[in-house]
Amino acid sequence: MQTQQRRQGGTIISLGTRGRVGAAVALALAVTALAVGTTAIVRSGGGGSGGAPPREHAAPSGHLAADPGQVVAGPGTAPTGPATVPPPPVPDDGGVPIDFGGVTFELPEGWTVLNRDVRGWIEFDPVAGYGIEHPYNNLCVSPPDVAPFCGLQLWHGDLPGNEGFGPWEDHGDWPWHQETDPPFCPDRLGSSPTDAVVPVDGDLGPVDSGIAPVGDHTAVYDRWAVECEVSGFTYSPRTWHLPDSQIVILDMYGQPETDSILQTFRFAAG
Description:
single chain; mainly beta; 9-stranded mixed sheet; 15 strands; globular
C-alpha cells in the first residue's frame, strides 16, 4: 500500500477548537474484564464527548453552504486554503446495495462485505454496583486489493471510543483505535509488528475537524495524522460521526472511493 498524503475530496467546514476529555480507567476492572473477554470502565460523571456534537441534520440538496472543494474556517480559525482536489464524482449506477443500522448505501464494483457482527463494551457503574453493557453492530467492507483488512469500517449503536474503555469522543484522542495493543504499521499489512504506529508530532488529537456531508445529512468529521516509527510510512485515519443515527464511518487508510460511497447514503428516518 503506497503513502497517500493528499487532500481528500468533499466539502469540509473546519472547527476552531477541539475538546479533550480524559477517562479514568480502573485497572483492576480492566483486568477482570479481560478475563471474561469484555471491557470495563468506571463511570466518571459527565459525558465523554467534550460537549454535545452538532446535531445531525439534512443539508440542503445534500451539500453544505460552501463552495465545492473549499475549506471554510470557523470563528477564530484562519482559512486553510482551497482543497487540492475537485469534489468527488457522483457514484455510478449499479453499485452493490448494503443495509446497515437504518441506512442504505452502495459499494463500488469489486467491493465486498468481509465481516458483519455484534460487539460490545461494558461500563461499570460503582453507584449501581454492576456493569452496563453497551452493544454495537460492526460492518467491514473492502476492495480486493485491501482485503482481508477493512477498506471502510462502520459501527452502529452504543459507539465505543479509544481502546474500548469509554464512549465515542468527537475530536478526541484516537477514538478509532479500539484495541489495547498498539496498531501495526499498515505499509506491510501486519508483517512488521515491531514497527510502532505513533501520532505525527506526538499529538493523538485530530489535525483536521469540522462537519462534512454523508448523503443528505451532515456528520462530525475528524482526520488524524499517524506514522510508522521505523519505516516512516504515514497515513490519515478519517471518521464521520452521525450522532442522531448513532453511526461512525472509519476510513483508516484513505480509500479513493470513500467520498463517492458516502454520497450514496440514504437514511430510513429523516
